[in-house]
Amino acid sequence: MYQKTITYYQQNQEKLTIRQLLKKWLIPKKWQHFFRIQQDVLINGTYHSFNTIVKNGDKITLIFNFPPRTKQTYLPGKDPIDVVYEDDDIIIVNKKAGKKTHPNLKTESDSLMNDVETYLKNGHPYMVHRIDMETSGLVLISKTPYLVPIFNRQLSSKKLFREYLAVIDLNAPIPNCGEINLPIKQDPNDVRKRMAASDGLKAITKYKVLRKNDRFALVQLNLLTGRTHQLRVHLAYNNWPIVNDPLYNSSKKTGQLLLFAHKLVFREPFTNELKIISAKPSKNMYNLVCAYF
């Protein structure tokens, strides 16, 4: 059972009932129902009706005495992890290129989630989002299944977003900034790949050029949606494939994929405090990037 006690601090002179506060915290309606009928929301240690106004400084206790939406189990892994941020509820890890975010089979033990399973010892990891195996950078992982739906809602409402850096081949001119709005679907000719197609799923990427020369550019990328291979497909479609991309760049490979998830922005569950977590690329990737400029 997961339990959380939060000291409520009023924002912008808001006056919220318990029901309104739970909605603000992006807690699913079904869970709100469980809290009410089981009287598992306490204000200063006592249950009150959902129409009760929450006061500044009140201590609110949420008792998650019902099954979570997600069940995730992982075998222990063997590799150390690079922890960038950690608190009681989440852990943010800087994933190495070439490491899968999660196993494809329950019998596998060589992914990031397996390694975090070992690191947590008495706890277990729950995946919130993933990045491609070839991509390095930040991955947010929950220590409880009860936060996963809340982070999923942050993703869909753009309160949780990810920022990337990439070095691209300039096979065509690139404006200094812009938005790529191209639906993406499975490539029917290659199960490993995705492709831009009008009948695909909505996919939007914003980009900004940070540095460039005649052949390459360093770009900042923001995902407004989260499709598989989205950045790689969008850039390649515009003739700006990411350097060393084994699937979408036909040029000779000279090392790892130069795509790095360097920043995560999200709201801390139950407090709405803005969190901005960033990381530096590995020395190897930094040296590769510097070699192009």
Report on this structure.
- With 293 residues, the protein is α+β, with helices and mostly antiparallel strands.
- Among the domains are: 2-64, Structural Genomics Hypothetical 15.5 Kd Protein In mrcA-pckA Intergenic Region, Chain A (Roll), CATH 3.10.290.10; 161-261, Pseudouridine synthase, CATH 3.30.2350.10.
- It contains six helices and 16 strands.
- The chain has helices at residues 18-24, 29-37, 112-120, 148-156, 230-237, 283-290; strands at 2-7, 41-43, 46-47, 59-64, 83-86, 90-95, 126-127, 136-142, 161-169, 177-181, 184-186, 194-196, 204-212, 216-223, 259-267, 274-278.
- Strands 5, 6, 7, 8, 9, 10, 13, 14, 15 and 16 form a ten-stranded mixed β-sheet that branches. Strands 1-4-2-3 form a four-stranded antiparallel β-sheet.
- A hairpin with a 7-residue loop joins β11 and β12 (194-196).
- The chain is elongated, with a radius of gyration of 21 Å.
Named CATH architecture of the domain at 161-261: 2-Layer Sandwich
Q: What structural class do the secondary elements suggest?
A: alpha+beta
Biggest sheet statistics: 10 strands, mixed
The third-level CATH topology of the domain at 161-261 is Pseudouridine synthase
Low confidence ranges: none
Question: What is the mean pLDDT?
Answer: 94
Order of helices and strands: EHHEEEEEHEEHEEEEEEHEEH
Task: Give the overall shape, derived from the CA principal axes.
Answer: elongated
Assign the CATH class of the domain at 161-261: Alpha Beta
Q: Span from first to last CA?
A: 53 Å
Helix content: 10-25%
* CATH homology superfamily name of the domain at 161-261: Pseudouridine synthase
Strand runs, count: 16
Strand content: 25-35%
